[in-house]
Design brief:
Oligomer: single chain
Number of domains: 1
Strand content: over 45%
CATH topology: Nuclear Transport Factor 2, Chain: A
Number of strands: 6
CATH class: Alpha Beta
Length: 135
């Protein structure tokens, strides 16, 4: 049995910018409600995790969930501050603190995404957000 490489990876500014650019693109797809293109950014099956609950999600389920969440959203904006935590050059967990605004209503959220670099491209694989309660 071989051991994994030691945790000595320090991301460069270019590594961080690549991840931030990935999120800027993903956010633009969400604003455009281009759900199929959003799904293209994933590594399925996805893991979805919240309080007392974790499950896998295939592409069809993801598309259905995003269609429901974004379908009647109207004019929505989101301001985000993202903090990437690189595990190594191919894995990064990103914590997002965001304010979502729809009309007069604003809501603050914190969530995390695990991105995996596969074939030279970042893909999100795990979504973590508290507050959804046990299912």
């Amino acid at each position: 049995m071989s051991l994994p490489a030691q945790a000595a990876f320090t991301p460069s500014a270019a590594d961080v910018e690549e991840v931030m650019s990935w999120f800027a693109n993903y956010d633009a797809l969400a604003v455009a409600k281009d759900i199929e293109a959003m799904a293209d950014q994933a590594m399925f099956p996805l893991n979805e995790v919240t309080d007392g609950y974790a499950a896998s999600c295939d592409r069809a389920k993801f598309v259905a969930q995003m269609t429901e969440q974004l379908g009647d959203a109207g004019d929505v904006s989101m301001e985000s501050v993202r903090t990437p935590h690189f595990i190594n050059e191919n894995l990064v967990f990103v914590i997002t603190d965001a304010t979502i605004t729809a009309g007069e209503f604003s809501h603050q959220v914190r969530y995390g995404d695990l991105l995996v670099k596969s074939g030279g491209a970042w893909r999100f694989q795990t979504m973590v957000q508290g507050g959804w309660g046990e299912f």
